């Protein structure tokens, strides 16, 4: 959504979707109540003639509107901390369990956090599909496993007590349930490995989502592009796995998309080195899988165009894949310019092998972290070992330098698309397609649109029966705002499938960079 022009029609479509990605970019004020809200506010949607839109909460207050007490839009003002929400809940639980003392139950924990048990349960269920009891059990076992893995004379009874278990029998039960062995056998196994068990116990999540979800298509998209060593996946089997760099350590996850309709949740298994990283890993997964999008609301908005509605109806629940790291996504977008998916995977695997970090103690299929911007910039402009044209190396080096020194703002979900786009535009070799692709996947911008993409134009020609220029696609796509990224996904998906990609047929192909005329 263009920050310079708040089109009332476009803004109202965002309000009807309650899409949180527009929070902070536009505020909605209701004339009949004198209140202004976030776009994501779940209060009753006002009539279009009763709303005004503002670029900031301050502007809404200056116009005489007061903040909504339900969605607290004033917390989006620059310099104010965000509401704690579920991340704060899980983080507080992790910190509580790090403190020695009496065993902590759900009731006691809720009181300590200042919430009712019911409210705590709502928060955790809405984000991660977890109950407080299940999360508490995971944190206890994680803490106990860490203690078992480190050398020391601590008795099993003391380990159980410090981890918050009410008894040794409770610890024994959890260890046997998860690993099928006794705590003593687990201790011997962990110490024999020498890495104290890099990851803690696995935790199964049922990640909730709204609207239809074409989960197999999304996991297929990720699995087809999986870079050996960095990621693993099976496009036909519907699973995807990788490592993630988090604030305090590493994380690992596996996402599985069962065949058929999902019951409102997507199963995933996660592991973390440090329990305080669990909220961040949950957020990474939700961003990667675009779980916070309401696809039913998005489909209604796109279906205002009767021709586009034809393909939207045939592919319900298409989402825009996100990313796990903005630097990685930007580099991979550049590597994918003008080449096939398979060639992009080959170049990316070579880059990871040369400049990434191999993780000891991880499985052989997923054992690398993608290089940071600093590591790539330190490699120098020639990027030794990379068989790329000189112009591509120049682009990669310039991008890495700009991300490292801050010339390009951090590429994270919710970032300002206009600010990031302007910074990327100043870099050599980063054209409109690359900027739009980064906007779609790294920033999670629902209105990012690669108008010059060959597949988008082919999809448009198939749908509308005529050839169009890039400018015409850009102009006519205005009717699909503010969800043009989803329109692009539907146009890509509507094309006949392309074959020749190892590991399965790609539903969506990386497309050539096409400069605007």
Written description of the protein model:
The chain folds into 4 domains: 8-76, DNA Methylphosphotriester Repair Domain (3-Layer(aba) Sandwich), CATH 3.40.10; 86-197, Arc Repressor Mutant, subunit A (Orthogonal Bundle); 200-292, TATA-Binding Protein (2-Layer Sandwich), CATH 3.30.310; 324-422, Hypothetical protein, domain 2 (Endonuclease III, domain 1), CATH 1.10.340. It is built from 22 helices and 11 strands. It has helices at residues 8-17, 57-62, 85-98, 106-113, 117-128, 132-149, 156-162, 168-179, 183-193, 215-224, 278-288, 295-302, 306-314, 326-335, 341-355, 373-378, 390-405, 417-425, 432-441, 454-464, 470-476, 484-494; strands at residues 27-30, 35-37, 51-54, 66-67, 203-208, 231-234, 239-245, 250-256, 265-272, 357-358, 368-369. It has a 5-stranded antiparallel sheet with strand order 5-9-8-7-6. It has a 4-stranded mixed sheet with strand order 3-1-2-4. It is globular and about 75 Å long.
Describe the structure using short key phrases:
22 helices, alpha+beta, 4 domains, 11 strands, 517 residues, 9% strand, Arc Repressor Mutant, subunit A, TATA-Binding Protein
Structure summarized in a few sentences:
The protein is built from 22 helices and 11 strands. The protein is an alpha+beta fold and 517 residues long. Helix 3 crosses helix 6 (132-149), helix 3 packs antiparallel against helix 11 and helix 6 crosses helix 7.
CATH architectural grouping of the largest domain: Orthogonal Bundle
Mean pLDDT: 86
Low-confidence stretches: 79-85, 499-517
Report the radius of gyration as a whole number of Å. Answer: 24 Å
* Helical amount: 40-55%
Broad shape: globular
